[in-house]
Amino acid sequence: MNAIMKFNRGVLRLRVGVKLWLLIVIAANLLVPLMYLGRSEARIVLLTFLASYFLMVVITGTNGFTRLLGLGHILWIPLLIFLVGRLGSIPAGDLYGVWARSVVVLNLISLVIDAIDVVRFARGERSEIVCVR
Hints:
single chain, mainly alpha, 5 helices
């Protein structure tokens, strides 16, 4: 099965709560930046999200839909460093500022979850999270 199909099928088979979390993260990192394409931060968030998606597809193709997928967000570390460095020049009170700060918080929470998953994978939890056949 093609890695993109396997990854997407895995996402669709996750629990409802996880899917809701992913919907929020996707909205913040993929959909909202489309409204702000004239801003460099939005373009970088969008490109980083797409690169992370393709990295997770590769991980799924090589290791299955496992906890190792947490490595797919490794690109968010430099993204967060960049965004935090830019927050001082982005007004907190406007919608763009709220979005930028929300992305930092959401992605940081996601990175903590990802780090836990990768550690669990390293400690031997290597089975697929959901059946993607």
